[in-house]
Amino acid sequence: KLCSKLIKQVLITYLAKHANNVQKLVLKHFEARIPVVMGFWEKIFGKPAEQKKTLKLEELEEQLEKKLEKEKQAFLNEGFGLLEQTSSLVAVSLERLKEIKERDFEAEGENKYLRKIVQSSKQGFAARMQALLEKTSPPQAKDFEKCFSYSIQAVDSFRQELVSFRKSIAYTGILAKQEMIGLGKNIQELETRLAELQALAKNSSINQSKQLLEKSKEVQQLLSEKKQTLEEEKKLKEMLASLEKEKSQVLEKSKILKEGR
In this structure, how many other beta carbons lie within 10 angstroms of the beta carbon of residue 150? Predict the structure, then answer.
């Protein structure tokens, strides 16, 4: 009895001094057991399935349309500044071209033969350059389709046509060197703005979003057609079943009539 009392007293003293440590050990024991217990119940009842979110085709189309509208607006916000700069450069280039057009090289000095050639080249160059600049003038309104199409195509068309009359540019520059240098700087800057617009349009994901939306609508159309076909097939089967039933009834009546004779 004395030993029991001593042991009990020692345990009480130890627990009083090390209560926090004992509590931690107990908690640690139960924390270690929690996954085991959970695993045990999962084996019995099964693990809950992960919920996967699925989108209906209509919801996907709605999301794609919203995404496309945001991309269009972002393009217009960023691209319209470049379009305005392009419009300004076209206007300045037309003014510089007008100065060249107004010069009469034949009346300005000697060497009439050369001046006649330059005058003729200048007229052809001025007419073609004016037509090119007017055609290159960008859309003024914030119409996405027009602005986007212009941004994609304008620089390639501009470069192609500009190269085609480089000979007349060279001849005109013989007697209008300073004017042609000034016009050339404007043309170069104009080409840079057009290239920036094309890069902006091509680097956007607008075309990809449009293609995805088109594909989604194609799938929706196919599903609609499939549903319609299945409904028609169901109706045909019902009609066939009805005809088979009528046929059976007719045969049964015919059999009864024959037996009645």
Answer: 23
